[in-house]
Design brief:
heterodimer, A: 551 residues, alpha/beta, 22 helices, B: 245 residues, mainly alpha, 72% helix
């Protein structure tokens, strides 16, 4: 269907090519995963495959791309849109209408399809993906995840042959990610799907995997890519956790085979598990740092409460993951907690006093909403200067935080020229410099590639060890598994507040919060009903039989 | 956060065809311009208030009430001070001020019962070319984006101790700089992406959008249009009685 021959691309004549000498073909109905770290050229390639580059953006394209044996340049935009749909990484900027229905209708109407037919297709698509309830809503009423769903499903209405999705699940809750992927890559969906991602987490859904590295295409083959550890490491990627547990070639995607293998080769160490449980329970009598009593919140002009009857006590030094379906009120809850939003009813107390904005450190999801200074140093020092702290103290604190965050060498650089991972760290540092006892992080790992994600998690763990109270909104179950406590939201209310393990053991709660267990959790649960949260816990509790004997 | 005045209700007025809504808006504008009599303008005001009640949108009057009162008071004072009216100056100034309020209320009623999509569909059905109508709709969408981005930026800076609401004027001006940079940058980025987004969705100024089968004038629409026309004619004859048959 699509043939890419000797494709090279650079944005400017003088700059080195982003993509170099790519050659591959895409067959009809193929499901392809293209992975690469930040800067590997994923977004550029996605735009080239839809001919937005160089049609709508400047760049120097060499090579040839044939769509159904005809050069892509020979197609009109309308002909291309009829055949190819693309979802941008920045999905919000792709939404051009004010209401969900209009957005879903937009492409079809612009392609000249009659309103009646377009509406029928919209309703059918909405029904298949379970978003009928969103059709009557305005875009500005939606949460980030709901917007991403609308942006994605609006591309399916007119039935394009090729679907190109650039990081399509960054804001969507886990359970929906899996059901959408299951549908798009399933046998009943007779379209070609190309998904660009930063990790191999969903490799099992795809027929084929392409790895993009700085040098060009590093791999083009099946899901066996997970066995090529050196290649992945050189491309800034890593295999899924299950592949690390079972490093010798095996079908890691078959739960039954994994279970058989563990039963044959490993044995469960009850003592280690008891020690694990004791460790997670062992903490001093919790001291309350934030309390919410009967809190209700609704936005101005809206009748419906986004939060209702919230009773919550946050213990000092806790590490909490805030989970829940899209639009369940997670961000609103944390903003009320941080004193950024004032509840309509009830009270929020911080250390026994009504909370004020600034008491709690709040790191926003998009670092670009706060960065403004000319240098990284000035950006981080800004909050202290606002408080009119003596310049010597400013210098001392800023230098210290720069060093902690690994940003010392970038102190004099313009923050806007840095990668997203660094900008996220700057946003985090500019809050931490105020030394807040409680830090709220809204989706701190979204959009980060593996190296940046690991660094960010290292920083979060370090803050927790230092005694800070951490509250983290996340859709990543792997990330949530690192926390001590989970708060699960459902429809503006708290559905669960308790130990992370207890949350992941409870199927009903997981369903309500649209969360899923990770493959490691699933495996451990299926083996003996004990939920092990991550690779480390699994290795600790399931030891190889020989090792057990020798010890 | 709702930055617009549209109220999502299932009332008779909300259910009218967008063309009817536009025509009735103009009917109220024309009526208010023709009438100069305080009592007649007061009667129009009462009709308008009744329509707000019918549209279950009286909350919008309260929302804009202070602004409307300021405009009405200013108009009244200016006419009273600088213009010589016919008859009683107070009555004349009162009528001019009431006319302003009637005009504003007509606009507010229209915005309360017409969604953005209906507005631009109505313009297209009235003959406005698709690119112009879409550009108008898109500009409203962008307003929402900028306002919500602005709010997020204000919040993000507030938690870092930069509160634009406190301090002297100079301090406030200075505290706006950290807000403007991210806002401008996000605006520039948005503008850059918008062209590509529209291209990716097959938008072209030459596209012919067929929405005629989406909206149809019902008997209730024709009746409403007739009432609107009758209102205009009545106002015209009230102002120019010599044309009365």
């Amino acid at each position: 269907m699509l043939h890419v021959k000797n494709l090279s691309f650079s944005y400017k004549k003088a700059s080195p090519p982003i993509l170099y000498d790519l050659n591959f073909s895409i067959r009809p109905c193929e499901k392809i995963l293209i992975v690469g770290k930040n800067g590997a050229g994923k977004t550029t390639l996605s735009k080239i495959l839809s001919r937005l580059l160089p049609d709508a953006e400047h760049g120097i394209l060499n090579g040839q791309i044939l769509l159904n044996d005809k050069p892509m340049s020979g197609y009109t935009r309308k002909e291309l849109v009829r055949r190819i749909a693309i979802l941008f990484q920045d999905f919000e900027s792709q939404i051009v209408s004010s209401s969900v229905l209009e957005e879903m209708l937009f492409i079809s109407l612009n392609l000249g399809i009659s309103y009646a037919n377009a509406l029928r297709s919209v309703q059918a698509t909405a029904e298949v993906f379970g978003i009928t309830g969103l059709l009557g809503r305005d875009i500005h009423e939606l949460s980030g995840g709901e917007k991403q769903k609308v942006a994605l499903f609006s591309l399916l209405v007119h039935g394009p042959e090729l679907l190109i999705l650039d990081e399509p699940f960054t804001d969507i809750e886990t359970a929906s990610q899996q059901s959408i992927l299951g549908h798009l890559t399933g046998p009943n969906f007779d379209k070609t799907v190309v998904v660009f991602e930063q990790s191999l987490d969903y490799v099992e859904y795809f027929d084929r995997t392409i790895v993009l590295a700085d040098t060009g295409m590093a791999f083009d083959g099946s899901r066996d890519v997970i066995d090529k550890r050196e290649l992945l490491a050189s491309a800034g990627l890593c295999e899924p956790a299950m592949a690390r547990l079972f490093p010798v070639n095996t079908d890691i995607f078959s739960m039954q085979k994994n279970r058989q293998r563990v039963a044959a080769e490993f044995e469960f160490d009850k003592q280690a598990f008891s020690a694990l449980i004791a460790e997670s329970c062992a903490h001093a009598a919790p001291q309350e740092i934030i309390s919410m009593r009967d809190v209700g919140f609704r936005y101005k002009g809206c009748r419906e409460f986004v939060l209702d009857k919230i009773h919550l006590s946050v213990a000092k030094g806790d590490f909490i993951s805030l989970l829940g379906r899209n639009g369940s009120g997670k961000t609103t809850l944390t903003k009320c907690m941080a004193g950024i939003l004032s509840p309509v009813k009830g009270e929020v107390m911080y250390n026994g006093k009504p909370v004020r904005a600034g008491d709690v450190g709040y790191v926003y999801q998009n670092p670009d909403n706060q960065i403004f200074a000319e240098t990284v140093y000035d950006e981080i020092a800004f909050a202290l200067r606002q408080k009119q702290v003596p310049e010597e103290t400013v210098q001392c604190s800023t230098t210290e935080i720069l060093s902690t965050m690994g940003l010392s060498e970038k102190a004099k650089l313009d923050p806007f020229t840095l990668a997203k991972g660094d900008r996220q760290k700057i946003a985090c540092a500019s809050i931490l410099v105020m030394r807040p006892d409680v830090v709220v992080l809204d989706e701190p790992t979204t959009g980060l590639d593996l190296p940046s994600l690991r660094e960010m998690m290292k920083i979060i763990s370090m803050l927790h060890r230092e005694g800070k109270t951490i509250l983290m909104i996340t859709h990543s179950m792997e990330t949530a598994a690192l926390s001590k406590t989970v708060i699960a939201m459902d429809n503006g209310r708290i559905a669960f507040h308790g130990p992370t393990r207890a949350f992941f053991e409870n199927d009903e709660l997981l369903r309500a919060a649209r969360c899923r267990r990770t493959p490691i959790m699933d495996l451990s649960m299926s083996l003996n009903g004990k939920c092990l949260l991550n690779e480390n816990e699994f290795r600790r509790c399931w030891i190889t039989k020989n090792a057990g004997a020798s010890s | 956060m709702n930055v617009f005045l549209y109220t999502k209700k299932a009332t008779f007025l909300h259910g009218l065809d967008p063309r009817t809504k536009i025509l009735v808006l103009f009917a109220f504008f024309i009526t208010s311009v023709f009438l100069q009599n305080l009592v007649a303008l007061g009667a129009v005001l009462l009709v308008m208030l009744a329509l707000f009640a019918l549209a279950k949108s009286t909350a919008n009057i309260l929302r804009m009430g202070v602004l409307f009162c300021i405009i009405a008071a200013t108009t009244f004072l200016l006419w009273l001070l600088f213009c010589k009216g016919q008859g009683s100056a107070v009555m004349y100034a009162g009528a001019q001020s009431l006319r302003f309020v009637d005009l504003l209320l007509a606009g507010l009623l229209f915005l309360s019962i017409t969604s953005l999509e209906e507005f631009y569909a109505g313009l297209m059905l009235c003959g406005m070319p698709y690119p112009m109508a879409f550009a108008l709709s898109l500009s409203f969408r962008l307003v929402v984006i900028f306002v919500s981005t602005g709010f997020t930026i204000v919040e993000a800076q507030k938690v870092r101790g930069n509160d634009v609401k406190g301090g002297s004027i100079l301090k406030r001006i200075r505290s706006y700089a950290p807000l403007l940079v991210p806002l401008i940058l996000s605006g520039v980025k948005k503008a850059e992406t918008l062209t590509i987004a529209l291209e990716s969705k097959g938008f072209s100024p030459n596209n012919k959008i067929n929405i005629k089968d989406r909206y149809a004038m019902k008997p209730s629409d024709w009746l409403t249009v007739a009432l609107g026309l009758a209102l205009c004619v009545a106002a015209f004859l009230f102002r120019f009685p010599r044309y009365t048959p």
